[in-house]
Amino acid sequence: MRFTSEQRLDDGVVEREFTLGEIPGTLWTPGPASASAPVPLILMAHNNGLPKSQSRLVARGRHTAAYGYAVAAIDAAGCGDRPRSAADEQARADLRRAMQAGEPVDEIFESLVGPLVANAAPEWRTTLDVLLALPGIGGPVGYSGWMALGIRLAVAEPRIAAAGFFAGGFVPRAQREEARRVGVPLLMLLQWDDEGNPRQRALDLFDAFGTREKTLHANMGGHTGTPWFEGEDVNRFYGRHLK
Amino acid sequence: MRFTSEQRLDDGVVEREFTLGEIPGTLWTPGPASASAPVPLILMAHNNGLPKSQSRLVARGRHTAAYGYAVAAIDAAGCGDRPRSAADEQARADLRRAMQAGEPVDEIFESLVGPLVANAAPEWRTTLDVLLALPGIGGPVGYSGWMALGIRLAVAEPRIAAAGFFAGGFVPRAQREEARRVGVPLLMLLQWDDEGNPRQRALDLFDAFGTREKTLHANMGGHTGTPWFEGEDVNRFYGRHLK
Fold first, then answer.
1. In this complex, do A236 and B229 lie within 8 Å of one another by their Cβ atoms?
2. What is the pTM of this model?
């Protein structure tokens, strides 16, 4: 792991870019005053592999770190600015065309997001190994954001102790099926009128999760309309399970 | 209004029983230290007119008052220990019989809860008038608990500024219809596996409410299994809208 830049923000949070082999990542850690003991780690991923540099993700990373967590985001294989396979590019082109034509997109999403999740998960686990070896970062580990990847990681990765999911992206068949194997406490945020993300599918998934400690928070509005107070609720959720 | 007893609790909350004509009520107010200015008022009602003396309602009243609210519960007409009409008694007997026989109960509930809400609402409004005239109690006014009554009051009573609903009781036709006229911020708590309270009806009602500031919190378990942290979430909701 190699840190390539470091920036100290107004609230003491340190934002560092790193690379780990081919994986580019960002690590946010709380200021030294609030971190005398090792802090819990939260892995933060953006729906459908959007870039880690996306402004809403960056804001969420900084905000969460200020609450006393180490927060990491990476561009895993096929995600963010990482190279895409020819099949990925084809699927994205098919998706644009089908959406413009108003045709069904489920199978195209499946062919795009299914491999994305499968390929991203091992890189997140590799990153987790390395981050937990850094001084000042301890367990337990939380997950935040992209629901499909979070299901995969919560099932595959026993170090994940709590998961905050944002219900606003396509969840491939494999993750819909393994949802019942998710056994950690989880909080799922749902935007009631999220464009292109059918509400009933999110409710069905919430119902399917195997854990008994699951909570759903639904609010009005579209994909990017999550109210500010949900950010605080999510931090309280992590506070109950990671601290 | 006549106060008939007064008790000071460990956390400084004062619990007073009162009567207002035929209406018996309980008023919880925060200790003097935390209440130098008039405090907001929360009307707290229990599903389907259960008694104000019911232990979970009492615990909730005390807890909420400790956060700096005046909280009032009454046994309105037909509710709690108040006399029941012959028609009420008949409907309750019909209900027990139908439930034991596994027969449909919707129409019986309608004949029982419909009049209960219609008769209780004016008594709650009368109580509100009197409570707001007491020294130390100001506006704004919140509502907490029984959803059917809360819908009626939120529509009829402009002084109600925020409503916390517990989705776990029969909602009569009239209130299902006027749900779209509810315009205040609301938080709805839903127990995902609530026995005898179909989840889909609660989700449909949440969808129907006219306000754009509505939030749903769903948790696993049955009617009485609401997790402790939801009590804090509800108080934060009131904090955003009543303070």
1. yes
2. 0.93
Q: Which of B232, B231, B221 is nearest to A211 (CA)?
A: B221
Q: Is A121 helix (H, G, I), strand (E, B) or coil?
A: helix
pLDDT tens digit string along B115-142?
999 999 999 999 999 999 999 999 899 9
Characterize A45-58 residue by residue with b for buried, 16 or more Cβ atoms within 10 angstroms of its Cβ, and e for exposed.
bbbbbbbbeeeebb
Pairing of strands A186-191, B70-74: unpaired
Between CA A95 and CA A104, with CA A98 as vertex, the angle to 5 degrees is 100
> What is the helix (H) or strand (E) element at residue A166, kind and residue range?
strand A160-167
Task: Compute φ and ψ for B55, nearest 5 degrees.
Answer: -60, -35
Interface of A with B (CB under 8 A): 192, 203, 206-207, 212-221, 227, 229, 232-233, 236, 240
What are the angstrom distances between the C-alpha of A78 and each of A3, A4, A49, A103, A170?
A: 22, 21, 7, 25, 16
Phi, psi (degrees; rounded to nearest 5) at A120: -75, -35
Residue B173's pLDDT band, with cuts at 50, 70 and 90, is very high
Q: Given this model, what pLDDT does residue A34 score? A: 58
Q: What is the pLDDT of residues B68-113, one digit of tens each?
A: 999 999 999 999 989 888 988 999 999 999 999 999 999 999 999 9
Backbone angles phi, psi at A196, to 5 degrees: 75, 0
Distance CA B175, CA B155 (A): 9
Q: Could you tell me the CA-to-CA distances from B2 to A177, B19, B78 in Å, in that order? A: 61, 5, 21
The sign of the torsion formed by the CA atoms of A98, A225, B205, A147 equals positive
Pairwise CB contact (< 8 Å): A214 & B203: no
Contact (Cβ atoms closer than 8 angstroms) between residue A59 and residue A52: no
Q: Which two tokens stand for residue B230?
A: 């939801």
Report helix, strand or coil for A13: coil
Which helix or strand (DSSP H or E) is residue A95 part of? helix A86-100
Nearest CA distance, B228 vs chain A (angstrom): 12
The closest of B218, B12, B14, B190 to B3, measured between CA atoms, is: B14
Q: Residue A79's closest CA among A59, A103, A101, A57? A: A57
Mean pLDDT of chain B: 94
- What six digits make up the tokens of A65? 């770190």
Spacing of C-alpha B65 from chain mean position: 15
